[in-house]
Amino acid sequence: MLRSFLFSGYAALLLLLLVPITCRAKLNDKACHSSCGNIHDMRGPFRLKDDPLSCGDSKYELACENNRTILHLNSRKYYVEEINYKLQTIRVVDTALRKDDCSSLLLHSLNDENFGDEYLYILRDKYTAINFIDCAAPISSPFYVDMPFCSKNSSSNFSLSSIQTYSYVVVGDMKVSDLRDSCSIVRVVRISSRGPKIDKSSLSSIQDGLLYGTDLKWGWWRWLPLCAKLGFLEDGSLLIGLIVALRTLFGTPCVLIFLVYKWRRRNLSMYQAIEEFIQTHNKLMPIRYSYSNMKKMTKGFREKLGEGGYGSVYKGKLRSGHLVAVKLMTNSKSNGQDFINEVATIGKIHHVNVVQLLGFCVEGSKRALVYDFMPNGSLDKYIFPEKEGNISLSFEKMYQISLGVAHGIEYLHRGCDMQILHFDIKPHNILLDKNFTPKVSDFGLAKSYPVDHSIVSLTAARGTMGYMAPELFYKNIGGVSYKADVYSFGMLLMEMTGRRKNLNVFAEHSSQIYFPSWAYDQFNEGKNIEMGDATEEERTLAKKMVIVALWCIQLKPSDRPSMQKVIEMLEGNVDLLQMPPKPSLTPQEVPTEDHKNNTNTTEISITIS
């Protein structure tokens, strides 16, 4: 019986495979051949709009416009340059593509993002990768081909920032180790490998390759419904039912397998990037643990300390008895870059006010980071004690914590070979050890730049709403720099002083909705912030912290102090501090700094962590 079942299965599979061949022969017998421009002898599954309904498949319908064959794909138009029935590929070029137009090269070239959910087409597995790269500094390398019309302060639609950038293009698959410091890959475009040979050092040759087009494959499984429509199966309903059943039996698993394959390939590239990074920087790495070690030290991830967008944190213990916190990273949307950022930054630095990375784990999709355990948790519990039901810290202790955080950020900016910009300074990311010594943590959004770079390159804003510097949203007030961290620290310092959120729409008085403005008005009028039965020394510390915070949150980056100056002000005499201008909420009244001819506020898309 088993043999009979297997024979039937093989026969059914053979029938399924033979149907497309027979169906194709019947299409040829129908003599459904069309032509448009340079595309001659067009046949199934393709059809033109004006062809008889019996020709081709409507899902593969093409248009003929101005004697050019056009493919409409996900609201975009592509010129059809060639249809290869032997390879089952169609070579297309975006109609908006122009040789010396930066925005069209980057935004209109085909890549994985251009396909919908139907998978009518997929990129051919043999292709040439074209990598578009933005750098904060000029790069001297034969592999990095300069794109002068995309560099500088480009006004193209693609540019998200008004700061100085240098744009390059690199031909071929790139590894993480191939990417220079201060550079980031903006987009990877796949073009046909069957075109003219590309000179990797010639921008003109690379552009010619882009204009040659991209090969797409179409799927053979689309022949089955087409055959049924053309009457190939009209001889008997039983056969129709058999084919439909076989299509369901074999077609659905094939589609599922294809989707799993695509998912696995995307994730494998992420794992490969992480592994390549680890191999390249192995001399700087902390201890690498296995996933089984992670489970042992956390007793099966039993005691959860907290969670966030990255995953969850669990309490653990090393064999030595040392307590640790294990961050199990489950969010894979960032392609592993958050993991690489953390290991690349805190994995090689040591400072009393920066969290210490003890080890990490990478096994397939499992990623974890091991830190020193912070028994007093994060600072947000003590800034908002009523909300968390936690103890309240004295102003002296808050002042000491703020000074420690300032030292930690200043070390990141000036104490390393590269300046490290955190981009996510907030109460939740300040951890406290048993002595309430603060530790700056969570470097998932951090970026490293050469120390001589006063302005840095970002493809999108990053951080948490309420702490993000305004230059990350508005292009006309100044470039992005270490002053973005200074702004975030100022917002943190203001919350530490007021023991409340800076923005509170439920405040008793409308003047107190935005705490920094209210605090400024109080001091400017010679009044103090209400602090209950606080001592005179505590009032002095609170005033000093507010004035320093007001300097840090000035709208224009050039008006903010450096973290070194912040430390000097916090440690100095409050009577020597001058009141800064009142901080603005929006840049509407601020004169433009980077674009003198542009008075409009420009908002850019942001990534919120």
Summarize this structure as a short list of keywords or feature phrases.
609 residues; alpha+beta; Phosphorylase Kinase, domain 1; Transferase(Phosphotransferase), domain 1; 6-stranded mixed β-sheet; 25 strands; disordered N terminus; disordered C terminus
Please describe what this structure looks like.
The protein has helices at 2-29, 102-107, 203-212, 223-230, 237-280, 291-297, 337-346, 380-383, 385-388, 395-414, 483-498, 515-524, 536-552, 563-571, and strands spanning 34-36, 39-42, 47-48, 61-65, 68-73, 76-84, 89-94, 121-123, 127-135, 145-146, 166-171, 183-192, 214-218, 287-288, 304-308, 311-317, 323-329, 357-363, 366-372, 418-421, 430-432, 438-440, 447-450, 461-463, 606-608. With 609 residues, it is of the alpha+beta class. The chain has three domains: 6-268, no CATH class; 285-372, Phosphorylase Kinase, domain 1, CATH 3.30.200.20; 380-608, Transferase(Phosphotransferase) domain 1 (Transferase(Phosphotransferase), domain 1). A seven-stranded mixed beta sheet has the order 3-4-5-6-7-13-8, covered by helices on one side. Strands 14-18-19-17-16-15 form a six-stranded mixed beta sheet, sandwiched between helices. A four-stranded antiparallel beta sheet has the order 10-11-9-12, with helices on one face. Mean pLDDT is 75; it is low at 1-30, 153-162, 220-237 and 588-609.
In a few lines, what is going on in this structure?
Helix content is 32%, strand content 21%. It has 609 residues and is α+β, with helices and mostly antiparallel strands. It is elongated.
